[in-house]
Amino acid sequence: MNKGTLLKAFKEVIDSGDIYGALEDFHYEYTSHPSTSPDDHAFDEDMYEEAVEALEKRWKKFSAAFKPEFESSRLVVWRQLLLGDKKLKNNGVGVYWSWTKEKARSWWGDNLRHKREKLLKGLVALDAIDIPLTLASNLFKEHIEETEIRLKKGAKVQLLEPRPGDATAKGFLRKVHGAYTVTETMRRVAYSSGGFGTVKMDPRAFLILTTDHPPDDSVRRGILKRAKEWHEYEGYGTDGEIRVMPFLRYARGTGKVRGHEGRHRAVAAWRHGDRWIEVALKAEPVRQHFGEREPEDYPERLYNQYETGVSVDMLKWHGTFTPLTEEE
Questions:
Q1: Residue 83's pLDDT is what?
Q2: Residue 328 counted as domain residue
Q3: Do 133 and 229 belong to one domain?
Q4: Model's pTM, two decimal places?
Q5: Residue that is last in its domain, among 173, 204, 231
């Protein structure tokens, strides 16, 4: 593989029209017709012609600026990650890479506990690259901050720096945080909005309670499609951009879930391999006596928000329950 063969592979995808499938994930950012919802994929003739014209201009700009490096007929890719004590493998280190060393910086903030950053250098074969999404990342975004190479899920990366056997971000973050970092601000917000405690539950169980189910499962499919990578949500939380931790709000007595937050984070945690996420529990209406919050009973079973008839036994995580207090 060299620059010529890689650009040829990119151009074949554009000419085949396959690029427009990847385009839907970016909500038509390259047109003057922004999608009104993530599932709105109407693509009329005028939009198509405008897209083709814009695409040709961006392709010329991209192909001129594309200056990759190659070793042993494979593309050199870079990524910056948080590293710790577990062993680094040739897979499981993410799909977001860059062909430019200078642009391969991490995007989570500077306040992660025990933070250690390491610049990874690797080699990938042509069949490891998700060409439609790589093109979408570089051609359709108006403000490109990273010269991105998107890999296919599970694609193998031959790591050159650090060598396999060094630390991995995935194992380190799970060891330090368990799952997502829940900040003190998140706990205070959870209590002030009616939360009485938190539980560490399986992210799949959280999704079972908060999504619809086949055959009418458009909500579930949309969340699976739009969920970002684990480290992005971790960064939003530790940087203070996300102040609300995942929660379940349910009706006291019936156990029916009525509200929630955190489905995209739950998907990312599940894909990352986390066995639990910390979730705030909120029973309604909130019990108060002369302005003081009354103790709340831990729910034995909760029922799906979309009335699918599906329920989850909450007692299996009762041992992880932690009360929330005003002092949080």
A1: 52
A2: no
A3: no
A4: 0.50
A5: 173
